[in-house]
Amino acid sequence: MSMSSEMKHSPVEQFEEEVEGNVYTYREKAQNTVNSVYTKLTTRHGWFGDYDYVYLFTPDIWPLNKKFRDYEQPYFGINDDVPILLTLLLGVQHCLTLICSLVAVPLLMGDALYLDLAQTQHLVSCTLITAGIATFAQITRFSIYKTPYFVGTGLLSVVGPTFDIIGIAYSYSDSQYANGSCKIAEDGTYLPCPEALGAFLGSMLCTVWIQVLIAFVPPRILKRVFPNMVTGTLLLLLAVYLTGSGMKNWGGGSSCYSYGTNCDVGSHPELWGARAYIGLGFSTFVAIVIISQFGSPIMKSASVVLGLLVGCIISAACNYWDGSGINSAPAGDFLWTKNYTYSVDGSLILSLLIMFVVEGISCIPDIVSTAEASHQPIEGEEFQSRIQGGIMCDALGSVLASVGGGLPMVSQAANNGVILLTGCASRRAGWTAAVLLVLMGIFSKIAATFAALPKPVFGGMQVFLFGTIGVAGIKVLAAVPWTRRNRFILSSGLGWGFAGTVIPSWFDSVIAYTGSNQALASFLEGIELIVETPFIFGALIVCFLNLVIPGHGEASQKAEEPEDSVV
Q1: pLDDT greater at residue 62 or residue 257
Q2: Strand pairing of 409-412 and 158-161?
Q3: Nearest alpha carbon to residue 268 among 325, 327, 326, 317
Q4: Distance (Å, rounded) from C-alpha 185 to C-alpha 239?
Q5: Which residue ranges does UniProt annotate as crossing the membrane (predicted)?
Q6: Most CB contacts within 10 A, which of 142, 209, 265, 474?
Q7: Whole-prediction pTM value?
């Protein structure tokens, strides 16, 4: 017998070998799991471990932070065992880090389609539930039966609704109210249009399958067709476009901005832009900045939701809240509890196809970022399978959202700051966050509270949030080689995108059609919707020019250009 076979193994090594050799019965493995859980629940180490919890709650203010100036917290890998208390704390932390961006999308969708409070609350609930389920699947990672493909990344990747749908929603809403499909009251008030939401859901269900197909395309091919120039342009233009809606809410709401009437904010109706409204939004914005700069590690990564909480407290103390919607909301909610009239609108198809293609590409940098933060390799077959699984999970999450009344899903990297600050990439914290998101969606009073947020408070948070999207776009564009060719392409795409943001209706009369051919009318409406959605149109221009303009000799061209060259 060889020396290696005679060597004694640790209990863990022996257990792993026997499991791989199918020596343990299911009963024995179940008993081992029960014993492990019992030990974890009944010991101090299982609950608290050796983590320094004081570090998480120490503000970044001298001299309080002096002790932790050179502190290096322990690192927990994706499959490491984490103390129960830390798992719960970081699960809540990941949830709080995401919650503002998660609820902002359905709230903006409700604003675009003028949905009433109950309809908006249900949309928020369905989006939270779908995001929780998709996040759980993304973190867990399932193998597709008898194939080498997966669903999910197996990392602490989180999934949430995409902001890309909002620009399409505003443009589509304008066209639907203009052609009479959505109703306007005699006094000019735009009435709720749930039919438009049904058209979105039905059209999403028809177009999301292109993202499923993209999941099987090698990432290197995707990056060649949709390089950083395209995704960076889209993010930057999206931020500029959405900031307008954020400022409208900051001043009191988009409705009163459009009509010139008093804004309905609690018991203080005033004209749009009143000093009190600007002050409420400013309190939220300033609180976010202060917490981001001076807060403890656990507060910094949740600065947006904590700043929103400060604005909520101030607005509630000053009687700017209307609690009737919260009181009338049901105790619980879930997917499929409200019926929508599903339809497929041809004018949405092209825009949604482009959006889902972009979502399949834009999630790749987020997965790379999460893998880096989790100390996982970012090359090789394993990493390629993580990207494939991540794109597939996003697509299936959007399918679930389409049939369940939510909004399209995409992987996000907003929680990577939590991973880096706390040194915990364990999937257990992610599973905790996913369960919390589902519970927050089920308990509809929480969704109703978000739906009842005073518009100025929500607007102050939105402006900061959209600023972070713009910074993400600039960061992506910073990785682009600034050759003359690339500057020309970006100038063209950004120029058209900025033009469409400043003058949204510039294309209204270009292809006006008054004939009776419904198919042609829908197609032309789809073209108009794309052109008047500036971040999609700008990104398409960049993508097209990048494919058709040759890039020969870029390296030598870059070396010969002076640094202050503009074009």
Answers
A1: 257
A2: antiparallel
A3: 317
A4: 32
A5: 84-108, 120-137, 149-170, 196-218, 225-244, 274-292, 304-322, 342-364, 429-453, 459-481, 488-507, 527-549
A6: 265
A7: 0.84
